Amino acid sequence: MRAYLSVWKLRFINGMQYRTAAVAGIATQLFFGLIFIMVYVAFYGQGSSHTNFPLPDLVSYVWLQQIFLSFIMLWFRDNEIFALITGGNIAYELCRPCGLYPFWFAKLVGQRLSSAVLRCFPILIIVFFLPQPYRLSPPPSPAAFALFVLALLIGLVLVVSVSMLIYISVFWTLSPTGSTLMISVAGEFFAGMVIPVPLMPVWLQRVSDFLPFRWSADFPFRVYSGQIPASDALWGIAAQLAWIAVVVGFGQWSMRRALRQVVVQGG
Amino acid sequence: MRLYFRYLSILFKSQLQYRTSFWLLTVGQFFVPFSVFAGLYFMFDRFGQLREWSFFETALCYAIIHMAFALSECFVRGFDAFSGLISRGDFDRLLVRPRSTALQVLGSQFEFTRFGRLLQGIVVLAWALYKLPIEWDAAKAATLVLMILGGVLIFAGIYVLFATLCFWTVQGLEIANIFTDGGREMAQYPLNIYQKWVTLFFTFIIPFACVNYLPLLYLLGRADGDPVRYMLQPLAGILFLLPCLLVWRIGVRHYRSTGS
Fold first, then answer.
1. What pLDDT shows up at residue A41?
2. What whole-number distance in Å separates Cα of residue B48 and Cα of residue B29?
3. How many domains does chain A have?
């Protein structure tokens, strides 16, 4: 366990070095957030009767998405592991005296966390002081906030475990482009990245309920705005944990199978 | 110009060498913006319309900007991937050849898989045009083509501008995404739904409005005043590209090799 913790820490510190990239990222995310909100404001502005998802909730949904982008994107600049598998350097990784699955897992969590920590505070400060209707409103109660943090962190574990499946699939396909592209596009759609899940048609919401993607992004953000009340939130967290158990179990099983037949191309 | 087509055919052949990967990526590129379009569709499904714009009018707007984006990503990719050329020091080789640097960088890379994205734009365009009651004449058809071409020029200008910055920063800048991806995301909706400052910025600094929103008004018969004024708006794309190329030449003069 200590080894994984230090891998996590190294990655975290490594990620914290890219400060210029973070500044550029902050500007980009502020811009995208503003544009998205303007589009939604225009949609809402026509005297709508669609009250199941009020505008302030939607605004905090969009901002949280932008702030915690690195927590929820399935696709997150980590070509390193792909290169390891296709380039044959995986051999070195196998020599290490620790399990490959938890090793990569810790690495990925650290990477995402550092990127979010670098970016979230400046954006948070800015969006709390924007003029209405663009301002991020605080959560309705301390309980909602605590549940949000909990759900977000569990969601991070969930999204990393799903992305681990993508890496493991490369053991078989050897080419990360085609299949991963499709998975990440579909995953981000069902996580509410294109349009928020509550604004989808009902049948599509049902579909996303049965997929893991929604639980890592859409769910914590709606807990934040109090749209999902505390009692339901606890059930949601249980669903998250169940998904993690399934996905991690499947991931470890398929990784063992993949490693049994791995062929390292010499060179 | 002949040289450009030579580059084009050579790179096309080289990309076709990896046939499966090529087709998979093309198909993937077809589906990537598909989820964005699905989002657009579902929003209209729920809200009916966006201010005074109907779904098919917005779809037309979407199709035009996405086609322009796909074409520019395919043909101006060389500038988009320019930071690699600089940091590897490969730019030195281009400098000693007796041809213009802009042309050579342009020819250094093409992304033909972007045709998948283009195809998606064409499908949406055809659908929107089929459903919209536009009375077509030669002038309107010409405007439509000009809109797409103008859009390509603007995206090209942005790529050139940010490639030029690489002369000083060596690394590519993520902030360019605001203007390419962000510009695309923004311009897929009619521009008058945004705040004033966004509209002004994207009309007079980076003239997305001139290739999309303003001529669109004319196409849909909503423009008042002289139609020629609206038709010629997409030429702003050229006005935008020219200073970008000028900056490029200044950048080349300031180039210092990384030496690697």
1. 85
2. 29
3. 1
SS3 of residue B216 by DSSP: helix
| Residues from chain B contacting residue A39 (CB–CB below 8 Å) | 189, 193-194
CA dihedral of residues B92, B96, B100, B103 (deg, nearest 10): -50
Q: Structure pTM?
A: 0.82
* Residues contacting A133, CB < 8 A, separation 6+: A37, A41, A55, A56, A59
Cα distance from A176 to chain B (closest Cα, Å)? 10
In chain B, which residues have their Cβ closer than 8 Å to the Cβ of A186? Answer: 35
A166 vs A157: which has the higher pLDDT = A157
Question: 3-class secondary structure for B173-210?
Answer: CCCHHHHCHHHHHHHCCCHHHCCHHHHHHHHHHCCHHH
Name the residue range of residue A197's domain: 2-260
Write down the pLDDT at residue B174.
Answer: 67
Per-residue model confidence (pLDDT) at position A266: 55
Query: CA-to-CA distance for A190 and A74, rounded, in angstroms?
Result: 11
CA dihedral (B204, B209, B210, B214) positive or negative: negative
Give me the DSSP letters along A171-233: HHH---HHHHHHHHHHHHHHTTSSS-GGGS-HHHHHHHHTSSHHHHTHHHHHHHTTSS-HHHH
Dist. CA A236–CA A219, nearest whole Å: 8
Task: Give yes or no for a contact between B183 and B206, defined as CB atoms under 8 angstroms apart.
Answer: yes
Whether residue A29 lies inside any domain: the answer is yes
Q: Retrieve residue A140's tokens.
A: 């309705």
The answer as to whether A175 is a domain residue is yes
Partners of A34 on chain B (C-beta within 8 Å) are 198
Quote the DSSP letter at residue B235: G
pLDDT (average), residues B183-206: 84
Q: Considering chain A, what percentage of its residues have pLDDT values greater than 70?
A: 89
User: A49, exposed or middle or buried, with CB in 10 Å at 0-12, 13-18, 19+?
Assistant: exposed
Residue A232 belongs to some domain of the structure: yes
Give yes or no for a contact between A196 and A218, defined as CB atoms under 8 angstroms apart.
yes
Q: How far is A25 from chain B (nearest CA, A)?
A: 7
> Is residue A267 over pLDDT 60?
no
The residue among B205, B208, B210 whose CA lies nearest residue B231 is: B210
Please determine, for the modelled complex, whether the ipTM score is greater than 0.90.
Answer: no
pLDDT at position A250 is: 92
Contact: B24, A177; criterion CB under 8 Å: yes
8 Å CB contact of B32 and A204: no
Question: Around Cβ B170, how many Cβ atoms within 10 Å?
Answer: 12
State residue A241's pLDDT score: 92
Q: Measured between alpha carbons, how far is B252 from B103 in angstroms, rounded to an integer?
A: 13
Distance from C-alpha of A163 to C-alpha of A187, rounded to nearest angstrom: 10
Q: Is residue A266 part of a domain?
A: no
Query: In the 8-state DSSP scheme, what is residue B233?
Result: G
> Do residues B154 and B208 touch, judged by C-beta distance below 8 A?
yes
